[in-house]
Design goal:
Porin, 16-stranded antiparallel β-barrel
Length: 360
């Protein structure tokens, strides 16, 4: 009898457990469904091919640069996820993969935002660096006219102007206000950046942005930090600072970009200035444009670097979310190697490029 009673209890217990598990699964499914409803998903992709008419490699080495045999480097894909936690708190992330890293998926940035008020937001986590007109979305090719954002300004190559553009780990306070025709934003940020060539610690900076009638956008920024784990021992614990100013406009189908920056790393060979200008004209789906870039680095040193790039490009919008671009560039190296892997034998080199950009 005791055995039968135990079996009956066991059966009841099993039925209870099954009911609890079923209820739990239904609840989890509902929670998952609610969570999925909250998550916003977007993404972008760029397929890019470039070729140089020189035996050298530009903006990288044999593995990462553009050479005579052509390169699909900088072909990339990114996924953005955003989710509101409540009325004041939200989370945003971007996962990123590029051919340069064999399409290994990495967390490009990810942070939590807290809205103190309608005008003030605090962010913490891994945040995209807010220096440069397009740096916060520089990987999304569909958002600007060029195949690649001007390399003599935006490159991550140590031989470039060293305008830091990687995401930093830390916090920021954003203040934004708007009137009928003007938007103003101030971003105060701080933290540290871990690069392949060095770490930038005790980072502090400010970025100020103003926009008028969605026609003119102006930005100026300044940051500084202390360099550690550097490739050059002379740079260890020195201050890295940068001042940048930029403006872009879209007026009567005329589009323009212009940026200038100066970098001081307390090492003469690393100090320099960089600037570029772009002018284009929108004709329905067609956008022809011209860009001129300039890098002047280590001007007072024994190893000065001076390079210019002039580019003629054409963008065609296949749809609202997809474009096709072609470019032809003349690269002129007046002294040193600039962004070439080694000092070029000829002062001039030509580069051809074609790319497709998609956002989704």
């Amino acid at each position: 009898m005791s055995y039968g009673k135990s079996a009956l209890q066991t059966k009841k217990a099993k039925r209870t457990l099954v009911c609890l598990l079923a209820a739990s699964m239904c609840q989890s499914a509902l929670l998952a469904e609610n969570l999925v409803d909250k998550i916003g998903v977007s993404g972008f992709l760029t397929a890019k091919y470039q070729q140089l008419d020189d035996d050298n490699f530009f903006n990288g080495d044999q593995k990462t640069g553009v050479g005579k045999d052509g390169s699909w480097q900088d072909t990339k894909i990114g996924i953005n996820l955003t989710a509101p936690v409540n009325d004041k708190i939200s989370v945003a992330t971007q996962f990123f993969a590029t051919k340069d890293d064999n399409f290994n998926l990495t967390l490009d940035w990810g942070f939590v935002s807290y809205a103190v008020s309608d005008e003030i937001t605090i962010r913490a986590g891994k945040i995209k660096f807010p220096v440069g007109l397009v740096n916060e979305y520089v990987d999304v090719g569909n958002t600007y006219p060029w195949i690649t954002a001007p390399e003599l300004f935006y490159t991550e190559n140590l031989q470039g102007p060293n305008i830091t553009r990687e995401s930093y780990t830390g916090t920021s306070v954003l203040w934004r206000t708007s009137t009928e025709d003007t938007d103003v934003g101030i971003n105060i940020f701080g933290g540290e950046i871990n690069l392949e060539s060095m770490d930038l610690r005790k980072l502090v900076g400010i970025s100020v942005r103003m926009a008028w009638n969605d026609t003119i956008n102006f930005q100026t920024s300044y940051y500084q930090g202390t360099m550690h784990n550097t490739l050059m021992s002379v740079m260890e614990e020195k201050t890295h600072s940068n001042l940048a100013v930029g403006i872009n406009f879209d007026w009567n189908d005329i589009i323009g970009y212009a940026e200038w920056a100066t970098t001081d790393m307390e090492v003469e060979t690393m100090n320099g200035t960089s600037w570029y200008t772009t002018l284009g004209y929108q004709m329905d789906e067609w956008l022809p444009y011209l860009t001129h870039q300039h890098l002047d680095k280590g001007k007072e040193s024994t190893n000065p670097q001076k390079q210019q790039i002039t580019t003629a490009g054409l963008r065609y919008d296949l749809s609202d979310t997809m474009d096709l671009k072609v470019e032809y560039s003349l690269i002129k190296t007046q002294s040193g190697q600039g962004l070439f892997e080694s000092i070029p034998a000829d002062e001039r080199a030509n580069r051809f490029g074609i790319a497709v950009d998609v956002v989704f």
